[in-house]
Specification:
The complex is a heterodimer of chains A (about 425) and B (about 180). In chain A, about 75% of the residues lie in helices and about 0% in strands. Chain A has 15 helices and no strands. Chain A has helices spanning about 5-15, 25-50, 65-90, 90-120, 145-180, 180-190, 200-230, 245-270, 280-310, 310-325, 325-340, 345-350, 355-375, 395-420, 425-435. Chain A is globular, with a radius of gyration of 23 Å. Chain A starts with a helix and ends with a helix. Chain B has about 180 residues and is an alpha+beta fold. Chain B has 2 domains: about 5-50 and about 130-175, no CATH class; about 55-120, no CATH class. Chain B has 5 helices and 4 strands, in the order βαβαααβαβ. In chain B, helix 3 runs antiparallel to helix 4. Chain B is rod-shaped, with a radius of gyration of 25 Å. At the A-B interface, helix 1, helix 5, helix 7 and helix 15 of A face strand 2, helix 2, helix 3 and helix 4 of B.
Chain lengths: ~425, ~180
Amino acid sequence: MTSDAQAVTSRVADVPLSPHFGWAWWLALLASGGLVALLGYTLISVTIIGVGVWGVNIPYVWGFDLINYAWWIGIANGASLFAATLVLRRHDLRTAVNRFAEGVALFAVICAGIFPIFHLGRPWLFYWTFPYPATFQVWPQFRSTLTWDFWAISTHVIVTSLLWYVGLIPDLATLRDRAKRPIVQRIYGVFALGWRGSVRHWAYHQRAYRLVAILVLPLILIMQSTVAFEFAVTLVPDWHETRQPLHFVATGLAQGLSIVLLVAVLLRWGLRLGRYIDEGDIDLLGKLVLASALVSAYLYIDEIAAALLSGGLTQEATFIRMTGEYAGLYWTAIVYSVVIPQLFWFRAARLSTVGGVFVGIAIGVGIWFDRFSIIVGGLQTDYLPSIGRGYSPTLPETGLFLGTIGLFAALLLLFVRFLPVVSMFETRHDEHEEKSS
Amino acid sequence: MTQRPCGIMAEFKTPEALIEAVRAAKRAGYTRLDAFSPFPLSDLAKELGVRTSVIPWIATVAGLVGAAIQYGSQYWMNAVDYPLNVGGRPLHSWPAFIPASLIVAILWAGAATLIGLLLILRLPRLHHPVFAVPGFERASEDRFFLCIMQDDPIFDNANVRTFFGGLSPLAVQEVPECG
């Protein structure tokens, strides 16, 4: 009685429904749980003691908080952009990677959101950025990019999580119907909201889902630009550039794609989903990563060209960033985000699990160093004589960064454990189309 | 859709059989039909006369309202209620009000579309009479169902059963009386 469609369902659905998941998952969850505990500790310490526990001070008022914020936003936006494009193009790849690309985006934006709230110093007053009738009768200053950012982050969290959840509803219904234990049936049943697969429901569901996927596209371009504007609107010579949004959007896309590739390769290997995330998908994703690394390379060249054209203090600032005290950050960024991805010219490297993990991590690391180089290295030259002290992250800052990586990994592990990582209904649909054509 | 969707349900093995059955049912004069499938069947939705054009309207209207509220509140707060002179720049600096207006338009449009979707579909509704049909759990896996509702003007238990019988379904079952 097993048909092809049922085989698809069971391979993917068996993962969240299986009562045992192996020691490797528990070990990974334990490790990331440890990092989440570290995150909790560092957040409590910065809340109780204050931002003095961080290495930031004038002129380096932004350290790991903004570096990691910009980095996580890059991942979130790159992954969202990728997922939305797949939905719109009705690409075959969509079935395989769309669901967890959205998951990656959602978890990354959750990690990103932690930084701006805690870098306020008094995180419990973060709601002051929201325009509410306060007793002291002031309103937020909307001519500041920082208030735009409040809207951008909250919108991204709300819209991405809604889109992700609505896309999951039919698959939650499948899990509800396949679950054997009543308690599991009930849990999935509640979250499936009583989805019954009516053709009428499907039509509305697909229309709404695709429409919101379109809406996500401009959102992430605006959002990443807003992050870049926070630098561009200052008078710091290295930051005060109109090319800043383009730099953040394009390198952020490279980084988002690389993390999607990393997760795809790991899932394929860890959950043995080779049939649903096939060689063609991984190959295509590898080519996209390579192409986006080339775009990053173009932007690094553009950075130099812009500096050469501008002259004066702007030029000096850019070149000090490349040769001065923090030059290592810049060159690490170049090597990791541009040079190493060139491995992907070789098909064997694109298809190998090791190659995918290596390049995926490399671009992530590279763009992280790029943000570090911009935020810290870019501040070395200013119109005012600098106080002559440098920036180096303190232990609580490092802990905060590692903690968000742990949080991201833990959310991803729980997602993999309890939800279908590959859209089952889309796979069924595609297999049916293949058979009938 | 009615609040009393009790009727007779036939189970089919393939989407093609389901589409055939819907066409046959329409030819036979049945109007109160609902079909169930494990994946979207856009042709069948057209066949059943499902019109989803309200969705983009929800998004457009909600987006425009959101943008207008955001722009208006920015203008009112920063130029009227709490004017703050920042380096002599104009109080109504409209370019600075655009990014947040666009973002909030997307927030309203996205949230309204997805929440509106659930309202249109009348979900969450955890219990529904069709779930009582034995084997209906495979509607989320690999089986296709067609239901003719009891409130169809020409509904007649025996006739519907005979009609379904002619389509060679896997099974024909009654959706139990609700309430």
